[in-house]
Amino acid sequence: MLAANDQVAAGLLIQRLPMGGIANLSGTQTLAEEDAIGRNEDYNRIAILANSLTAEELLQLAPDKVLHRLFWQEQLKHFAPEPGLDSPRFVCSCNRERVSAMIRSLGRDEADSILAERALIEVGCDFCGQQYRYDAIDAAQLFVPGQPPVPPPSSALQ
Ligand SMILES: [Zn+2]
Q: What DSSP assignment string belongs to 90-105?
């Protein structure tokens, strides 16, 4: 379940884990066994409880409060996120060099055409919202000989 408003985004994911033990690791688990997990009473109870969560609760309550409200009869294990590089955080790999390479891959004619129409080449990252702007001088510098080669399109922008 996902919910968002203009201030916060929140989500709850329930995941049915594969069967434990040697059978799972060896890949000898049968489809019938997999189906049995899906019909597992515990999992179904958790899914039904999770489904009772409203978007308002998800947005307004602290995670521990949400878990307590939904699963107060269950034995909960709480794993605190570890601070540091491994902790969840927002990261976007966009940067001006990548955007420049993408504009170079469009070619000089296309860049000039955009500039003629709008006076600026504006590229917005859909992931983080960063805006990149190139005026005619910035754009002209992208096409000066001796610039790094244009990378293949797959790595130009994410
Ligand atoms: Zn970005």
A: ------HHHHHHHHHH
Query: N- to C-terminal Cα distance for the chain?
Result: 26
Q: What is the pLDDT of residues 46-69, one digit of tens each?
A: 889 999 999 999 999 998 899 999
CA 131 / ligand 1 centre spacing (Å): 8
pLDDT tens-digit series, residues 34-45: 666 556 778 888
Pick the CATH number of 96-155 from 3.40.50.300, 3.90.1280.10, 3.30.390.10, 3.40.50.450: 3.90.1280.10
CB 131 within 8 A of CB 122: yes
CA of 138 to the centre of ligand 1 (A): 20
What's the CA-to-centroid distance between 94 and ligand 1, angstroms? 4
| Token pair of 111 as six digits | 């860049």
Residue among 139, 133, 127, 122 at smallest CA distance from 94: 127
Q: With 0.70 as the threshold, say if the pTM is over it.
A: no
